[in-house]
């Protein structure tokens, strides 16, 4: 078995991919943050410091931390990878032949670390020190972006997700995030850690138009015992779920996918913003969204790749059956209805389990953390005054690459 294996949401976490936000945040302003899918501008240095606390909390728990910026810089040392990324991320169709070529020539000469930072964090017209013969520079303001920053890369959970013995490299729903996927494609293809290793790529590795088959890792919970729970949200479509399910069954990596429907609004962008797995029989849930009447389907299949779909009743019963537990313990968001709504918005339900019953969460969610504590769940608190403004918690900010099953 390859060492890349994620067998659950709650087994001992061994290796994780995270991204320290730097350059992208410096490019966020009140006038552009909404187009870049951020609700607010962040204090850059403070956000970085908070992220360092998160990384160190993981290391203290014996988790190997991989940083996206470093992995991308290492990948860019591989000539084929660098060539592919420059062509893909700065394509002729994106910038026009002449300008794309000039920008690529300028970038190709930069050291890998700097190039990695620009690909992740963006480049404005003011920051390009060369004069191009194309019309593009004359047509744009200095503050316009040649390469848009990718502040959402902070949420490494979404762009790819490891499910049992393989990875889904996710086609993202929103144009502001689609370039992120090419970075992880390149890393999994060429980075020395991954190149030539025997892991499955279930979905999303080819460059093609995935059309309506979008899926994001925040909606994918590897609940263990061969089962996967997927939320169909604002960002993950039934078409995307069927594609991933078919590939999981084809490779014999999962027995069942439970798909549940979520309301399409910002406060529950992904399943993990309203529900996470903390111990074998324990989930955190935000009851306003995760209601009894949520529609739910069970998908099964075999090596042929055909998917059988059966509508299920109450999703909790479906999960109990899949995990073989008598009764799930659901810990709801803490406080009165005002406090609960506020804490859910600040990702009280989006915790990262590092081993059964031990989770990392934002310290500001005092009511909910107290409830976790009473239920015997240990919360390792991290500051999130700045990071939390991106609307994602510890689970969103982490992509487990190696984790024990249950």
TrEMBL record:
Task: Indicate the enzyme's highest-level EC class.
Answer: hydrolase
**According to the UniProt entry, what is the EC number of this protein?**
3.5.3.6
Please give the pathway this protein is involved in: Amino-acid degradation; L-arginine degradation via ADI pathway; carbamoyl phosphate from L-arginine: step 1/2
Q: Identify the Pfam families for this entry.
A: ADI
- List, from the UniProt record, the residues annotated as the active site of this protein: 396 (amidino-cysteine intermediate)
Q: GO BP, one example?
A: L-arginine deiminase pathway
The record's annotation in InterPro entries points to:
Arg_deiminase
Report whether Hydrolase shows up as a keyword of the record.
yes
Keywords of the record, alphabetical order, are:
Arginine metabolism, Cytoplasm, Hydrolase
Q: Where in the cell is it found?
A: Cytoplasm
Domain of life, source organism: Bacteria
Q: Where are the transmembrane segments?
A: none
One cellular component term (GO) for this entry is: cytoplasm
Its UniProt entry gives the catalysed reaction(s) as: L-arginine + H2O = L-citrulline + NH4(+)
MF GO annotations: arginine deiminase activity
Protein family (similarity comment): Belongs to the arginine deiminase family.
Name it: Arginine deiminase
According to its UniProt entry, this protein's organism is: Photobacterium gaetbulicola
List the gene name: arcA
